[in-house]
């Protein structure tokens, strides 16, 4: 009898590791099945360049801290894009006053402006006009007008740039060029490409 039990135990001990491994595998399987699945974190939807509101035949005014009119934007249609905080405007007309109260106007078939209309891209029949003023030194500055199919106007700093052919009229003087970068506050104008100009002597004005 003892011999039979010893033989049976020896045979069982041979298969004991396999039995334990099987039980361990069953336990692991049960644990995986019983554990609740963690929900994957929801990915944010990619921001789309779509308008969040539209306007028709509108006028929008902005004022500075003292309540003075800073800018006025008029247009036939407008679309605001929240992802870039820009507004696309059809048949745009903009009036902008800098800190000294100097008026600059801009018109075009279409425009793209930033939130406060201090930076405007004018597209199609673009025209920017700065009315004649007297500078800080008391010297009169003539009327300035820029014309092109594209003008990028920085209204507060009185800078106008264009990578397309441009026409510049300063008082009685007249210039044309392929590209332009004009900083009115610094009095620096860069004209490149085929540059032509007509300067009228002061005595003839």
Order of helices and strands: HEEEEEEEEEEEEEE
Count of β-strands: 14
The total tally of domains equals 2
Radius of gyration: 37 Å
Largest sheet: 12 strands, antiparallel
Straight-line N-to-C gap: 135 Å
Oligomer: single chain
Reported by name, the CATH topology of the largest domain is lipopolysaccharide transport protein A fold
The total count of helices amounts to: 1
Report the CATH superfamily of the largest domain: Lipopolysaccharide (LPS) transport protein A like domain
How much helical structure, as a percent, in the residues? Answer: 10-25%
Which word captures the global form?
A: globular
Structural class: alpha+beta
Regions with pLDDT < 50 over 5+ consecutive residues? none
CATH class bucket of the largest domain? Mainly Beta
Structural summary, described in words:
The chain folds into two domains: 1-32; 53-199, lipopolysaccharide transport protein A fold (Sandwich). It contains one helix and 14 strands, in the order αββββββββββββββ. It has one helix spanning 2-34, and strands spanning 53-63, 69-81, 86-97, 103-113, 119-130, 133-134, 140-141, 144-154, 159-162, 166-170, 173-177, 179-183, 188-192, 196-198. The chain is globular, with a radius of gyration of 37 Å.
Quick description:
The protein is of the alpha+beta class. The protein has 1 helix and 14 strands.
Give the helix/strand layout:
Layout: H1 2-34, E1 53-63, E2 69-81, E3 86-97, E4 103-113, E5 119-130, E6 133-134, E7 140-141, E8 144-154, E9 159-162, E10 166-170, E11 173-177, E12 179-183, E13 188-192, E14 196-198
Antiparallel strand pairs: 1-2, 2-3, 3-4, 4-5, 5-8, 6-7, 8-9, 8-10, 9-12, 10-11, 11-14, 12-13
């Amino acid at each position: 009898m003892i011999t039979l039990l010893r033989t049976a135990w020896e045979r069982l001990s041979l298969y004991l590791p396999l039995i334990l491994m099987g039980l361990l595998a069953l336990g692991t399987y049960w644990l995986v099945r019983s554990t609740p699945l963690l929900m994957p974190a929801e990915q944010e939807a990619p921001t789309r360049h779509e308008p969040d509101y539209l306007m028709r035949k509108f006028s929008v005014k902005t004022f500075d801290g003292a309540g003075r009119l800073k800018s006025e934007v008029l247009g036939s249609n407008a679309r605001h894009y929240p992802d870039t905080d820009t507004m696309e405007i059809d048949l745009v007309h903009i009036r902008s006053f800098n800190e000294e109260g100097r008026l600059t106007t801009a018109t075009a078939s279409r425009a793209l402006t930033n939130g406060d209309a201090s930076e405007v891209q004018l597209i199609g029949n673009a025209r920017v006009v700065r009315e004649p003023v007297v500078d800080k030194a008391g010297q009169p500055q003539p009327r300035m007008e820029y014309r092109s199919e594209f003008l990028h106007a920085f209204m507060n700093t009185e800078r106008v740039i264009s990578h397309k052919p441009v026409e510049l009229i300063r008082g009685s003087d007249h210039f044309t060029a392929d590209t332009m970068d004009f900083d009115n506050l610094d009095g620096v104008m860069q004209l490149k490409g085929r540059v032509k100009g007509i300067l009228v002597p002061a005595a003839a004005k």
